[in-house]
Structure formats: C-alpha cells, structure tokens
Amino acid sequence: MRNITVLSGGMGGARFLQGLLHGIDAGTIPGLAPDARVTVVANTADDLWVHGLKVCPDLDTVMYTLGDGIDLERGWGRRDESWRVKEELAAYGVEPTWFGLGDRDVATHLVRTQMLEAGFPLSQVTAALCRRWQPGVELLPMSDDRVETHVVVADEDSPSGKAVVHFQEYWIRLRAAVPAESLVFVGLDDATPGPGVLEAITGADLVVLPPSNPVVSVGTILGVAGVRDAIRTTSAPVVGLSPIVGGAHVRGMAEQVLGAIGVEVSAAAVGLHYGARTGGGVLDGWLVDERDADAVPALQAGGLAARAVPLMMTDPATTAAMAAAAVALVA
Question: Alpha-carbon distance 290 to 284, whole Å?
C-alpha cells in the first residue's frame, strides 16, 4: 500500500498521524510501502472568525503537530507561546475573551486571513502555510466552503428556552458541561469537496478513520457532498479506530455529541454508527481497545472485521503499532 488517506479531526487525528508517519519511517507497519504517501482530509467545521481573523483549529493542529510546532502539553496552539495580544484585547474589553489566540499563533491566522481576503481558496492557503511547516503529508481541507458546527443548548433566559452557540464556544467557554440538545451544521448541505479530496479517497490504497470525534470531526467530513459515496465505492479497504475506550472518550467531547444524535457511548455503537460498507456504511474494519473486547462479536455480526488491541496513543511507537493493527485487520 503506497497511498494512504486519513480523515482527521484535530488532536486525536494529529496524534494518530504522528504515529503513522513514525511507523512508515521506521518500517514497522507491514503492508505499507517504505515510500508510502499520506494525504489528510481535515475537518473544517470547527473553523471560526475571531477578532477578524480566520481560525482553522483542526487544520492548524495537524500542521503544527506534524511540523513539530505544537504545544505538547495543551495539545493545540504553538509551543513557547506568549499571550500579550490576548491580554491587551481583554484590557480593552473586547469579546470574545474566552477564545485565546497566542502571539505566535496569530501570525498564522493573519497570513490565512490576508490570503483569503485576496481571493485565494482555503485549500491554496493551507498549502502555502504547509510550505513553512513541512508536515510530511498532503493536508487538504474537506471543503473550501464555509461550514460551521453549532450546538443547541438549554437557555432559561431565552424565550424559546434554547440557545445556539458555536461549537468552539460550547467546548471552550461552556466546557461542554451542559447537555448538547442537538447539532446544527451550518453550510454543510451546500458544501462541495475541496480540490483533491475525492481523488484522495478514490485513488487510495487504504482509507483510515482515526480516533477523532465521530460526529463533529469525521462526521462532518462524511457530510460533505460526495465524500461518503467516494468512501463507499473506493476499491481501497476502509478501517477505523475507536475513540471510545472503556465506555468513555479518551479526550474531547464525544460523549456529549454522541448523545445529541442518539448514539450510545460505546466502541461498538460508534463502529455500528459508521456501519459496514456491505450494508451501506463506510467501514470494512473497526479496531476497539482491549477493554472493549466484548464488543467484537456485535461488530462482526454487523458486517465489520473487528479486533481488540491497545488503543491508547502514549507515544509515536505505540501509535504506530495501532496503525499496524489497523492495516493488518483489512489487508
């Protein structure tokens, strides 16, 4: 297998990609060619405008992580960051104060915004930014069109009893501490795939759904017109890794948003939510963690190849072993 396509969100997808590239370089993933090329189709439905700047959290997290610029402790943003611009904006009372842009990070958003305002599409802007960071993958936005995820929550002060907030506000300001009643994907129905996205799927030797959020990361990518059909019909095997371990998400808010779409928080339920390609879904195989080994029979009954292996991404070598298990499952 030489052409690998990964549908990625932010932190979980970026860490998986780090391990995948480590395994390719070390030659520890049987079935992948030593010169295997990785294409990443990244979620852009987390994107937002802050202080007049276009911010693309998942694109940047993948780019910074693979380009060795990420803050490893936070898992997002730049390493060795300072926050003087944020502090000055707060001193002026400028909202939103809950979303902080670091001084180094601001440079990326300034370049992106200037290029967008000059008429360049997001895909070309992303390619230009990657020329600096050299992430070792081809990083493709899922769409050049504007897509935003919003969350409906209860609000006793609203006449309707509900409020709609941007996904980033739900995650950062509200800390996902209130139930997500439903999700609204603004612009998704009209979005078209970014340049190269469908070709990366149909021309792949392997398609991977990493342990990213199945609703607001991978789910939004699958919601772009033509993407789901491309995955269903590609000749490449399609394998996924569960973001749910031991009945809980490892990081992020899968529990909250799965509930909003009526899916149980379990490794089996998420795999069956994606579904087997033989039954109209998008997967051929689904890896679960050893703690969820009892889910394997139900997944197999649902038409999926399934296996339980360690799924905690503690370091690149361990993550490479996860990637190797994914390849072996569907090879």
Answer: 19
